Amino acid sequence: MPASLLRRLAAVLYDGLLLLGLLMVVTMLFLPFTGGEALSAHRHPVLEWVYRAALAACIYGYYAIPWTRRGQTLGMSTWRLRVEREDGRRLGWRDSALRLAAAAVSWLAFGLGWLWSLVDAEGRTWHDAWTRTRTVVVQPGQGT
After folding, report:
1. Is residue 129 part of a domain?
2. Does residue 92 belong to any structural domain of this protein?
3. Percent of residues, the chain, with pLDDT higher than 70
4. Among 23, 47, 75, 100, which residue's CB has the most CB atoms within a 10 Å radius?
5. Which domain holds residue 34?
6. With 0-12 CB in 10 A as exposed, 13-18 as middle and 19+ as buried, what is 30?
7. What is the pTM of this model?
């Protein structure tokens, strides 16, 4: 059964809060290298790039690791959602990268990619359709 937009957004909010906490920890780990000051490209150009790469790796890892293993992030698990390929298999690392990039485009288009699920016959968002994946509701007792 395809996931509703409201359920998807609830999982996104939950994951967003968890991810924000993780990114704050990563940021905290960089502070000793700057004397506790905010990173700036002017004062720490190389460290700025390392920091940005670390944040990007955390964001990718937060989604890709659980998507490739169970098909669910913590937020998705809470809201009984699972992401899978159209053939029902788990996402691979490449699938995860493409889906994450496509989801960003869905947001950057003022959320229209997410709202598309309200008019799509199969309830797919842009990032579902573009990456040939789907977000489904996990029925109680079905497991992952």
Report:
1. yes
2. yes
3. 98
4. 75
5. 5-137
6. middle
7. 0.91
